Amino acid sequence: MFPERFSNLPAYAFPRLRALLDSFEPGGEVIHMTIGEPKHAFPAFVGEVLAESVREFGKYPPNEGTPELRANIAAWITRRYGVTVDPDTQVTTVNGTREGLYNAAMALCPETKNGRQPLVVMPNPFYQVYAVAALSVGAEPVYVNATEATGHLPDIAGLPEDVLARTALVYFCSPANPQGAVADRAYWERLIALGEKHDFQILADECYSEIYRGVAPVGALQVATEMDADPERVVIFHSLSKRSNLPGLRSGFVAGGPESLRRIKQHRSFAGAPLPLPVQRVSERVWADEAHVEQNRALYFEKFELADRIFGNVPGYMPPQAGFFLWLPVEDGEEAALKLWKETGVRVLPGAYLSRDTEEGNPGKGFLRVALVASREETERGLTRIRDCLYGL
Predict the structure, then answer these.
(1) Of 289, 320, 343, which residue constitutes the final position of a domain?
(2) Are residues 358 and 384 located together in one domain of the fold?
(3) How far is it, in rounded angstroms, from Cα 139 to Cα 77?
(4) Cα(220)–Cα(188) distance, rounded to whole angstroms?
(5) Percentages of the chain per state (helix, strand, coil), in multiples of 5
(6) Which of 61, 215, 234, 333 could form a disulfide with 224 if both were Cys (CB 3.0 to 4.6 A apart)?
């Protein structure tokens, strides 16, 4: 009586982590470095805007976002990427990127591709919603390992021609969660050209785009526009969770071609929950402000530098280009996470919990994901314990 489509899903990462660690006592003061929940302060004006608009909880909100919010999002896209989008036909709001990434597949994935079951391609490791979205639309997920040999980005161009011919959607995350790798302009050009050749859409998960050191990551819609690609080729996803330290606001957006957005908005009008109006009012203001984003980025930069100093002598350590995770090399992620918990009280996530087994192995097995979201002082304590416990340096 129950569907089989989700029967092969593994337990989610955090229940697996609790099963691994919670029967053991921590070996010291507990430091949580597992969940990517930003701890930096969000903009001070958020409370003021929320209080001013609190009466609007008494109104039904527009499903696609207020005109002011969509206009501010479109203006931000232009400032950030130099791309002009129509706020009325190319932008819609979503309850965070996870909801948007899931429902985009529902709205955009065809029932067949070249007469066969469609494929949805995604990096491995990956944000787990990509897989459940593929299964929900009757597509077959294809996991493309992202390893040190591929620069921790998936080699989608290396897939066989028959796989590419059946590919309907490609989920792609840059900056990558968990590795922090960034797709450069050449990478995006190759992927978009591949999409043009094989007629698949690229769902670009860019929610870590504003946390970086050095040059700002190039965007998928930016490169597609420069290439004069099909305007429906790329759909981008952003939120205020990481950019503005507002994960509880559940405020994000989707932008792309007008036909893709028409279909996404039509689907959401039946199945999606709009953001409450006070949340939309806060979002209007937050997307229009860049000062707090620069301050936030500076705090993460300090922690990037801290990580480089602590782990600089660890063989295989890869300084993250962006995002707020470390992807630390170990022999076995589960064993290392358990050892760390039992001996130091530091809680981290085994990389295998974010990836799937493939014929080439599980690309997350030899890694730990470590979140750099706490204060600088707490982060330094945690990272130092990790180094001393696992690497003996």
Answers:
(1) 289
(2) yes
(3) 31
(4) 6
(5) 45, 15, 40
(6) 234
Statement: the pTM of the whole predicted model exceeds 0.70: yes
Quick one: 370 and 269 in the same domain?
no
Query: 319 and 269: one domain?
Result: no
10 Å CB burial of residue 365 (0-12, 13-18, 19+) is middle
Handedness of CA 167, 173, 178, 182 (dihedral sign): positive
Is 304 domain-assigned?
yes
Task: Identify the CA nearest to 193 among candidates 228, 154, 159, 222.
Answer: 228
CATH code, domain carrying 219: 3.40.640.10
| One domain for residues 211 and 303 | no
Structural domain ending residue among the three candidates 289, 320, 355: 289
Each of the 393 residues of the chain gets a pLDDT tens digit; together they read 888 888 888 889 999 999 999 999 999 999 999 999 999 999 999 999 999 999 999 999 999 999 999 999 999 999 999 999 999 999 999 999 999 999 999 999 999 999 999 999 999 999 999 999 999 999 999 999 999 999 999 999 999 999 999 999 999 999 999 999 999 999 999 999 999 999 999 999 999 999 999 999 999 999 999 999 999 999 999 999 999 999 999 999 999 999 999 999 999 999 989 999 999 999 999 999 999 999 999 999 999 999 999 999 999 999 989 999 999 999 999 999 999 999 999 999 999 999 999 999 999 999 999 999 999 999 999 999 999 999 986
Q: How many domains does the chain have?
A: 2
Residue 24 sits in which domain range?
13-41+292-391
